[in-house]
Design goal:
43% helix; alpha+beta; seven-stranded mixed β-sheet; 19% strand; 246 residues
Amino acid sequence: MIVSSHQKGWKIITQRSHGLLAAMIAYQYKIDLPVEIMVPVLVAIAEHDDGVTETLVHRNLTDAGAPRNFTLADGNMKTDLTQLLSLMEIGNSKSQLNGLLSSLHLKFLYDDDKRKTDKGLDDFLENQEHYRAIILENLHIDKEFAARLYRFLEWSDAFSLLICLDKIQHEGRKMEISKSPDGDMNTVHYKSNKDICVEPWPFRSPSFKVFYEYKILEQLQFTSIEAFNEACIAAKVEQTVFTILK
């Protein structure tokens, strides 16, 4: 979950809403891919953080009973593989390409120093390496092309996160998004309150609208994840719309 403080309590954006925003951004990106590649890639971008119902995951509440932002460590050295396995099952059940991009995303997120201290995670990532080699052979694509497709996912993911985390600078101050599929670096800044400018311009249209949905919870603490889930179900869905333009 993406959690931030709000004047009325907590602002909750699900990873699924963030993923949908990433896919809306990717849909507008000027990239030459055939439909049999583009559609699975867009689906993978939309679902890259799926796998569990976030409001029912125990680690998504802090010890004090507050909703936990995904960037806040939970202090548990072991990685819960539930979401990772579920994400791979979802991707694999759609297509090999979806599974490949899901696997590359998990490599990006988890292939770090923690891998050597968590045997379960280590075994999972080693299995994924073998899995990716098989898929590349089955699809007759090379690692460079797969890496380009993943950079497309990661770029869209990074842009969406900057919006959802409210990290984009105001007053025309530029900040980097990430490396594009072709290795270029784009910058982003607010042109006005809800107008976002990207340089150099990577999209097909001169401007387009995107959105994310969220909920505001006025209750600050919860005695259980079930109570938190009930509050999320009952809360009103709200939407923030942005214009991305040259």
